[in-house]
Amino acid sequence: MPAHPDPLARLEELVRKKAQLEARMQAINARQQEIDRKNDDRITWLLGSLVYERLRDNPALQDFVRRELPSRLTERDGKRGLWQRLFPEDTGEPS
After folding, report:
1. Comparing C-alpha atoms, which of 78, 75, 59 is closest to residue 67?
2. pLDDT at residue 22 in the model
3. Helix/strand/coil (H, E, C) string of 15-50?
4. CB-CB contact of 61 with 55 (8 Å)
5. pLDDT, tens digit, for every residue of 46-73?
């Protein structure tokens, strides 16, 4: 007749396996979050590149950027002259 395993030993084994599975799940989640972040960054870059390329030839897009971008610019962006790079004909900072 088979011997019954020690219930405490079995419980300890299950707790250990559970911890291993949770660690694996956390690693998989972390990898997926990194992939998602990289994909979001790539989409942001592609959209920014598209807008930047089309900005010179599209007055409606220029108006949109002139209206919406200033609230996103930081003091550091201002020191870098980013607004003047987008709109060289403007002599001052965005309003």
Report:
1. 59
2. 98
3. HHHHHHHHHHHHHHHHHHHHHHHHHHHHHHHHHHHH
4. yes
5. 999 999 999 989 999 999 999 999 999 9
